[in-house]
Amino acid sequence: MTDADELRRRSAELLAAHPVADTGRLDFLRARFDAGLAWVHFPEGLGGLGAPRSLQPVVDAELAAAGAPDNDPRRIGIGLGMAAPTVLQYGTEEQKRRFLRPLWTGEEVWCQLFSEPGAGSDLAALGTRAVREGDMWVVDGQKVWTSSAHLARWAILIARTDPDAPKHRGITYFVCDMTDPGVEVRPLRQITGEAEFNEVFLTGVRIPDSHRLGEVGDGWRVAQTTLNNERVAIGGMRLPREGGMIGPAARTWRERPELRTHDLHQRLLTLWVEAEVARLTGERLRQQLAQGQPGPEGAGMKLSFARLNQEISGLEVELLGEEGLSYDDWTMRRPELVDFTGREAGYRYLRSKGNSIEGGTSEILLNIVAERVLGLPGEPRTDKDVPWKDLAR
To answer: From the candidates 108, 230, 297, 316, which is the catalytic residue?
Structure first.
């Protein structure tokens, strides 16, 4: 059985065989993956050792103390948090060995082709079509709000393969090569001035059947694995005390006593406590994850994440007064990651508006919490058993 002492020993062996000072970043990351120290709960040969997920921090701490490079997880968060768990659960052995190593090392960036202009909150209404031609699928459609599509080599894609089936049952899940002919990525400029999101147009894109995840028509079930992991990745990230949005607000309060008022003090105290409760709840959620796959509880964490970010950033702008209205740079650029704490308060305020939309709208997540966590009666759905082609659009 792999325990903490065994992982420390393996980490020391990795560092001895690949000294940090003498080993290139990518070479070290590849060696770490091959040693099973990438994500220790994954199977042997796929970057892990079949160890408990809860032991991952042991490896991370040992390697960080030695100055070893990490895989820049914020840059490749979609691959790590959404694509990898789905490939692991539904992929063939060939798919796992092809995709997981370069995904974890960051050699190949991933994006998510789920939402569409007419299928956002109601994702199962998607209309992108995939038509089979022999051992290939020909895909036509449009996706939207695609983070990192301008950087990605691969995408996780859901498309409609059976328009005669009800909307949840006629969907299939694919891995799409973003460099293929027919894939066009267009930037979507946001309120921040940046374009981290994109529109993606798919015109006659040919995807081999070997890049299908799960059975034909079973894409909705496969997508639930992705979506559950996405909500945990967004709302349940590991943070230190005063990590995330509450950190800059608390720091401004301490460093700028002239800005303080009694009302702002009371609001800051309330939000500080709520942020700490959310942080500790995230720790508990990760402990639950160590026992199995993520469930609907991640929706609650993502809900809390969105609300707190918006309320804290609003308080920070109000605290700063006129300074809070300034903005450093409206230049159109296409960033590689979202930097909530590395920019000024105005950026945090504007960017946080998207938190209640991306990764599932807050309205839909409230339904998930009500029905799947609290066990309340579901809303009437008159379209569940109607063929997709007969639905009003």
So the answer is: 230
